[in-house]
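Let's sit down with a protein and look at its sequence and fold side by side. Once you have written the record down, we can walk along the chain together.
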Amino acid sequence: MRSTRKGGSWHFGMKLHIGTEPNRTVHSLIATDAQAADITPMPALLHGGEREVFGD
């Protein structure tokens, strides 16, 4: 875990990045510290057979 500052407020914690199938089955799960960019774990969440990719 790590602390980061966003908009003048300090946050301490982790982020959870989840790769799922269209039927909502989880195929990959990655935990990063709060300071990591959301795009960083994306290559590890993709398995190569995707036709569509959505992110939030």
In short: Residues 2-45 form one domain. Strands lie at 2-6, 9-20, 26-33. Residues 2 and 51 are 34 Å apart (CA to CA). The chain has one domain: 2-45.
